[in-house]
Design brief:
Blueprint: H1 16-28, E1 41-45, E2 48-51, E3 56-59, H2 62-65, H3 74-84, H4 98-110, E4 118-123, H5 126-141, E5 145-149, H6 158-163, E6 180-183, H7 200-214, E7 221-226, E8 229-230, E9 236-237, H8 240-253, E10 256-261, H9 275-280, E11 287-290, E12 301-306, H10 307-311, H11 326-341, H12 344-365, E13 369-375, E14 378-383, H13 394-406, E15 409-410, E16 412-414, E17 420-423, H14 431-448
Parallel strand pairs: 3-15, 5-6, 5-7, 7-10, 10-11
Antiparallel strand pairs: 1-2, 2-3, 4-12, 8-9, 11-12, 13-14, 14-17, 16-17
Helix pairs in contact: 3-11, 4-11, 12-14, 13-14
């Protein structure tokens, strides 16, 4: 079975069938939708992909965090088949379907928020989820502004591209919406020179307070939006002490705290959500947005907030044709079952322990491996030209990615300078596959130094 197989490259990449399809892609699809990988998927199972020429790849990207339960889980296939035999779609503004209600009930039960009385709405993508969370916060508070952070990625719609820090995702798209202000995100590996560990939280809180002083007074801020682990920004975890302080600032000023868990949710961190750790520490969010792995590959996102917050939203602001599609809801309900029954939160921590141990040993071995960080099975390895200057080693990471894919391992970069290798392997990866992937990556790092 492909699910239990190991990487094996049988042809030059891309193979003849893949090359033909990639040529058709070039003719039919805008070049701005980029892909550097010489692969055309034929089928996928578990953490493995087989291309149309029979080459097998271990996938450590997982659709960028979409496939925590893996490719082609048989129970998801059956759940979607069963639902498709009844109906594909029923718009919730017109006809209620029970799957939407049941999935909302499940999220209301487990999403860790400040309030215990919750409600949930559904959209189709992470960006849509964030847009609806922002609209909810603005409508509830009656305030016009939001605060986001350096390194943030929240989507590619006009609003979320404005919220996103890296403007390579929004070249030529202005004018941008007003009322979005940016503070500096805690990036411990690149703290200001001379800023001690003792003073670092105070430094970043001062940067946040500067936004209130110089951009928007706190009384006009509806929400502060935080990724518990920055994704595109370089897999940088939000320090818990900083989150506690931000939560306090929100409480003192009537500001809502929104957790963007689009990429961090569904067992990736070792808990269902990173916000579970926040709640244990006494600093849960007011609104949580999730997507990606929620439905195992079918487009779906969710916004969960307190009952009071949603009750304070003006009628007509929320909704959408496909939000909470019946097929997606059926798949998502099954995803929850699989995660809980197969113990994928625990498995995430097992994988993370093995990988972190190996990554840290490489950090000692290689001058170019500057930092290893993350929460649970969402880890990043930052490459630099040398540990003293910490200059981003963008070219080296590009070479590592190319070497890996040529040997059957699919990985991806992240960070402002694309010098971070991200780890988003499906949580159903076998031990043998994990070891093979680590071996391929190690060999790639060594080859990139020549």
């Amino acid at each position: 079975m492909l699910k239990h197989s190991l990487p094996e490259i049988k042809t030059m990449l891309p193979g003849p069938k893949a090359r033909s399809i990639l040529e058709r892609r070039q003719e039919a699809i805008p070049g701005s939708i980029k892909s550097i990988y010489p692969c055309v998927i034929g089928r996928g199972e578990g953490a493995m992909v087989e291309d149309v020429d029979g080459n097998r790849f271990l996938d450590w990207v997982g659709g960028v965090g979409v496939l925590n339960v893996g490719y082609s889980h048989p129970e998801l296939i059956e759940a979607v088949k069963e639902q498709s035999g009844k109906y594909f779609h029923a718009m919730m503004n017109i006809i209620t379907h029970e799957g939407y209600v049941a999935l909302a009930e499940k999220l209301n039960q487990i999403v860790p928020l400040k309030s215990e009385r919750k409600k949930t709405m559904f959209a189709n993508s992470g960006a849509e989820g964030i847009e609806n969370a922002v609209k909810t916060a603005k409508s509830y508070t009656g305030r016009p502004n939001i605060i986001v952070f350096s390194g943030a990625f929240h989507g590619r719609t006009l609003l979320t591209a404005t919220m996103t820090a890296k403007k390579a995702y929004a070249v030529g798209m202005g004018p941008f919406p007003d009322g979005i202000y940016r503070a500096e995100f805690p990036y411990f590996y690149r703290n200001p020179e001379g800023c001690s560990e003792k003073d670092v939280i105070a430094y970043y809180l001062e940067k946040l307070n500067k936004v209130f002083e110089e951009a928007s007074p706190a009384k006009y801020v509806a929400a502060i939006v935080v990724e518990p682990v920055q994704g595109e920004g370089g897999f940088i975890p939000a320090p818990l002490e900083w989150v506690k302080a931000v939560r306090k600032i929100c409480d003192e000023n009537g500001i809502l705290l929104i957790a963007d868990e689009v990429q961090t949710g569904f067992a990736r961190s070792g808990r269902m959500f990173v916000s579970d750790y926040w709640k244990e520490a006494g600093c849960p969010p007011d609104i949580l947005v999730t997507a990606k792995s929620i439905a195992g590959g079918i487009p779906l996102s969710a916004v969960t907030a307190s009952e009071d917050i949603f009750n304070g939203v003006t009628a007509g602001i929320l909704g959408g044709t496909y939000g909470g599609n019946a097929l997606a809801c059926a798949s998502a309900l099954k995803v929850f079952e699989i995660i809980e029954r197969e113990g994928l939160c625990e498995r995430s921590l097992e994988i993370a322990k093995k990988c972190r141990s190996r990554f840290l040993s490489w950090q000692e071995e290689f001058e170019e491996l500057g930092d290893v960080r993350g929460i649970g099975c969402m880890m990043g390895i930052e490459f630099v030209t040398d540990k003293q200057s910490r200059k981003p080693a963008t070219k080296q990471v590009s070479d590592i990615i190319d070497h890996c894919v040529q040997h059957g391992l699919i990985i991806e970069s992240a960070g402002a300078y694309s010098n971070v290798i991200r780890f988003l392997c499906p949580l159903v990866v076998t031990d043998a596959q994990l070891e093979r992937g680590l071996d391929i990556l190690y060999t790639a790092i060594k080859a990139s130094r020549k």
